Amino acid sequence: MDKQVRISSLKTRFITRNFPPSKFCMDKSTAIVITGGYLDTSSAKTAHGLIRGTDRFEILGIIDDKNQGKDAGEVLDGKKRRIPIYATVEDFNNSGQKAKYCIVGVATKGGVIPDSLREVMKEALQGGLSIVNGLHEYVSDIPELVSLAQEKRLEIIDVRKPKKVKDLHFWSGKIKEVKCPKIAVLGTDCALGKRTTTRFLVEAMRKAGYKAEMIYTGQTGWMQGAKYGFVFDSTLNDFISGEMEHAVVTCYHEAKPDIIFIEGQSSLRNPSGPAGAEWIVSADADAVVLQHNPARKQYKDMEYYPAYLPDLKDEIALIQIYGAPTVAVTINSAKMKEQEARAAAKKYAQDLGIPAILPLEDGVGGLVPIFETLIKNSLAKV
């Protein structure tokens, strides 16, 4: 076998260029998460999600040179989770623990992989760790890292690498086959914690004895172990509605859930990336949970542009025009004192006539009766 053929064979065998195979979903693999020193900022939201919980990986450590020696949970939200923070990948490897994967846990501007992260990935590959990357730029397009992965017989998993066109779905109308309630978890902006709230809602309904499933629409949802979904912002526009429908319909027929929660992305009015109509129209959502941060006045990273977050009553009216009632408001309390956030929640509840809660501080158990009613109503129609 000549050298060119051998390299091609290795590429097929050891480099996972598209979405990882289904068998990957069956294993809870050990992993570390790299954050480039951004663990204590909103840029590390993938790391934050994995620290809070994942059914796909066992997180053994976080690599963040600014917070070395601390517990990752305490840095995130003051709750110890026994996930140590190391300054470097080498420090982790010297700790005596062994991981299989190194996950990129930050969202960089434009999804570009900076030189600093490339160096950390190189160190990880040299140390025997495969790479899981959720950024827009693909690690499998970086020759130096691909060559090193081939040499070490390791994987590179670019979660945002899109499906082939032949594997994509057009919208078909099969969404009407789904008889259980479908709840869209939307927001008034991006980076508000919609995925976290969606996961909390699924966990709360399962704790209450119901079969609940989550449809992920971003890379972190997949990393946390959700079985059904697609990566919204790497899907060709013509197929977004179809992929949304296909994920929901497949989930309904395979998992037979009592209720389905769909993770939202961006917001209906965010000018840099409007999203939300597909959740209500194409996925035929029966109701909406709306996430909002009262302290945020302009869209994230768009303070230079004269566009402002809408009044909640106005946003709820727009959502209703699209076809779904908003049954609850969930408050992101970032950059607010807890007392301020609670006062805002109380006022929203009074003004809107629906529950308004703080998911991180209080959980979402108080919303369970709303969804129990929706489930009972759906059963009565069958």
Overall tally of domains? 2
What integer is the average pLDDT? 93
Unreliable residue runs: 1-23
Q: Residue share in helices?
A: 25-40%
CATH top level of the largest domain is Alpha Beta
The CATH H-level homologous superfamily of the largest domain: P-loop containing nucleotide triphosphate hydrolases
Query: What gap, in angstroms, lies between the N and C termini?
Result: 62 Å
* CATH topology-level name of the largest domain: Rossmann fold
With strands numbered from the N-terminus, the spatial order across the biggest sheet is: 9-8-10-7-11-12-13
- Strand-and-helix sequence, N→C? HEHEHEHEHEHEEHEHEHEHEHEHEHH
Which overall shape is indicated by the principal axes computed on the Cα atoms? Answer: globular
Brief rundown of the structure:
This protein is of the alpha/beta class and 382 residues long.
Describe the secondary-structure layout:
Elements: H1 3-14, E1 29-34, H2 45-52, E2 57-63, H3 72-77, E3 85-86, H4 89-93, E4 101-104, H5 115-126, E5 130-133, H6 143-152, E6 156-158, E7 182-187, H7 194-207, E8 212-216, H8 219-223, E9 228-229, H9 240-255, E10 259-263, H10 277-280, E11 287-292, H11 312-322, E12 326-331, H12 338-352, E13 356-357, H13 359-362, H14 368-381
